[in-house]
Amino acid sequence: MRRFLSRLIKLFTDRKNWVRQVFVTSVAAAIAWQVGDLAFPHGGLVAAIVCTLSTRISLHKSVREGIGQILGTAIGAIIALTTTAIFHFGFITVGITVVLCSVVARALRLGEVASINVPVTALIVIGPGLSETTAWHRLTSTLIGAAIAMGFSYFSHPKTPVGRAQDQIASLGLRASKLLHEMSQGVAAGYTQEAAGSWLVRARSLVEEIPGIRAQADEARRFARWFPTAETSVAEETYARGVAVEHTVVQVRTIARTLFDSVVDGGIPASTKRQISKALSTASYAISAKIEMMNDVDDSFVDNLISDEVREAGAALAETLMEGAESSDQEQLIRSISLISNLDRIADSLDNSSPALSDVADKSDSEGKKRK
Questions:
Q1: Which residues 6+ apart lie within 8 Å of 236 measured at CB?
Q2: Are 199 and 256 in contact (CB under 8 A)?
Q3: Are residues 100 and 215 in the same domain?
Q4: Cβ-proximal residues to 299 (8 Å cutoff; 6+ apart), any chain
Q5: Are both 117 and 181 inside the same structural domain?
Q6: CA nearest neighbour of 285 among 171, 180, 169
Q7: Which of 36, 187, 205, 265 could form a disulfide with 47 if both were Cys (CB 3.0 to 4.6 A apart)?
Q8: Burial of 240 (0-12, 13-18, 19+ CB in 10 A)
Q9: What is the per-residue pLDDT across 293-309, written as a single tens digit (0 to 9) for each?
């Protein structure tokens, strides 16, 4: 029994953010219900529904995204009342309301889920039993629920968008470092195809997290542009780190694929195992060191020292490969040489020296320039 309780408690302690978000949503919905009922009879239901929908969106977005959802909800309710006044309640009203609400949600760039919530809220407003008094009551309830959601969404996360982005970047970087360390040990000990397959699967799973980090880093940058207390320079730096860790993780996946292909074709030659293992270990240490000092040190000199160690390890590997080139299998030699390029790209990402990081504008930058 005690073991069952400890496991049950661990399910919640391991998901602190989720528990926090659920608690905030439930409290917000309960307060919206109470305030709506105090405003007029039976006004709490619509307020609670709208509050739950709006808070659920803004839980995973910044306050700016929450305001957009709330604004869309209010506009959707007004559209619903307008179409009802013109066409009365019926299938024409429902169809026009959904179309117009979807257009508004698209114009406000609310996202896929929020774009569904806007017409849903509008349909709640024009639901059965609609009269002029009931319509205005439902509209008022909508605004009450939306306002309460906006206030509570601020407390749904313990950190700012920049803080959440930094946490995700650090987590991904440290896991990539750990994977490189395990690959380094495996190469030194003589790894199997099964082990290489496991590394490749883990590397692919790391790459799959890149879109989420990119979205969070972009949210942090957008948040800093309009929120008065946010530091734009910190947000921009965090976004750049997100791009850098993305490039690093892609190289880690390529290394895992190279090691897998090598073991399938007979394995890495014994003469180069030690140097490859050392190079991968150096890269692993460099990534973890960069992550550890990411939030404490702003020193390009330190970055250069870390990245230079990776480049030196790559150069030492290249020298070893050239010395035994004549007696090496050509395909295995080519694969081993490709590791040097991967290491150089990791070094470039650590000190942000690659033009691929600094000279290539992303989609949001391009859109910003067009708007200007």
A1: 221, 224
A2: yes
A3: no
A4: none
A5: no
A6: 180
A7: 36
A8: middle
A9: 775 545 555 567 888 89
